[in-house]
Design a protein that fits this description.
By secondary structure, the chain is an alpha/beta fold. The chain is 42% helix and 23% strand. A hairpin with a 2-residue loop joins strand 14 and strand 15. Helix 4 runs antiparallel to helix 5, helix 4 crosses helix 7 and helix 5 packs across helix 8. The protein starts with a strand and ends with a strand.
């Protein structure tokens, strides 16, 4: 899989851009703030319908414009498809494939697969649990696009339930009485959608574990003083049933856990149990990586997570587009070379760097200079 042509209209700093890309390495070189990351962000957005840099769509639209368009000619198994997303902040985004509208924008997910490495990836180790949950859910939806609907349903149910809890809390004893019957219904919805999301996450963590261990070992193999025994575990906000529970068992367990915490939830006005409270626990030896891993170990582990995602997608029979956004400046020479060796055979790699010397020789390919929003093929 690779992008043969990228077109942008009012996306970030680009009023209009049409850019031909090649299989193999595509290296965008230029000082910071010139528009390099905007290019690879656009490709990744077309894959995930989310930015790796910002939480909302508004910053993606060029100042003064009311919408942005990202369009790409994608080659997959020798066949071309024209994918397009129209970004409308405050409204509903619109997606098209081969110029035909899709009923929902999220139906675009999965048609283009990407894995992105960026300086923000350090948050996968040092950041909040939400960063690690987002990593899992993005990979889930990339592998199985129908789960985008499950995640969307869960988020909607959670918002509705939190609103009900806040209303009950503000209404005092009488407000709680009126809310309890309605809350029972939303508890059922939360348990069903939450169990579906939880089951998928548990399966994903099991699939990822050997890839993370392998990737970390290869990245850190040449480093001194680095602990190589990496662990990956899923910590639920309630006690999980033993064995490999199916969705029905998880639904019942989640519903029981919600019922057990109802008084606490009514008192605090927020949902306290469910996948939105879960954690992906990373460890080195017997210690959690967060708070104990060195800077080098943290970077190695963050890279290992991304490499694991990349290798897992490849094992599904697809070769995702690999995006390396300004990561080499953060790595020493050994880790640069190790990373390049692990991903150098990718069908397409998009690399950004401030200077060409930062890019390992194995990833050099077509070079584009980016200066003040002008992209020039060298």
């Amino acid at each position: 899989m690779h992008v043969a042509q990228l077109s942008l209209h009012d996306f970030r700093s680009y009023e209009r851009l049409d850019l031909a890309l090649e299989p193999g390495g595509n290296v965008f070189v230029g000082p910071n703030g010139q528009g390099k990351t905007n290019l690879v962000e656009a490709v990744d957005y077309l894959s995930t319908l989310a930015s790796h840099r910002v939480a909302s769509d508004a910053p993606l639209v060029r100042s003064g414009a009311d919408r942005a368009v990202v369009r790409a000619d994608v080659v997959r198994d020798g066949r071309n498809a024209l994918l397009e997303i129209e970004i409308v902040p405050g409204g509903s985004n619109r997606a098209r494939i081969n110029k035909s509208p899709l009923p929902r924008a999220r139906e675009l997910i999965g048609l283009l697969r990407t894995v992105i490495f960026s300086p923000e990836d350090l948050a996968l180790v040092k950041g909040d649990p939400s960063d690690r949950r987002r990593f899992l859910d993005t990979l889930l939806v990339t592998r199985t696009p129908r789960l985008a609907g499950v995640r969307s349903d869960y988020d909607r149910i959670l918002r509705q339930r939190n609103t009900l809890l806040k209303t009950a809390r503000a209404g005092g004893r009488s407000g709680q009485g009126n809310a309890l019957a309605t809350l029972d219904v939303w508890d059922e919805h939360l348990a069903q959608a939450g169990a579906a999301l939880l089951a998928a996450r548990l399966e994903l963590v099991e699939a990822l574990r050997p890839y993370v261990a392998s990737g970390y070992g290869k990245i850190a193999a040449e480093a001194t003083g680095i602990r190589l025994d990496v662990g990956l575990a899923y910590r639920s906000s309630f006690e999980l049933p033993t064995g490999a529970p199916d969705r029905e068992v998880l639904t019942a367990a989640l519903l029981a856990a919600v019922a057990a915490r109802r008084n606490d939830e009514l008192e605090r006005g927020v949902s306290l149990v469910g996948p939105h409270r879960d954690e992906l626990v990373l460890s080195l030896g017997d210690l959690p990586a967060k708070g104990y891993a060195s800077h080098g170990e943290s970077w190695s582990l963050a890279l290992a997570l991304r490499i694991a995602a990349y290798d897992l997608l490849r094992s599904d029979g697809d070769d995702p587009i690999l995006i390396l956004d300004d990561v080499f400046a953060e790595l020493d020479k050994d880790r640069r070379d190790q990373l390049a060796g692990l991903v150098g055979d990718a069908e397409q790699v998009l690399v950004t760097a401030p200077v060409p010397q930062d890019v390992p020789a194995l990833l050099e390919g077509v070079r584009y200079d980016v200066m003040e929003g002008v992209v020039t093929r060298v």
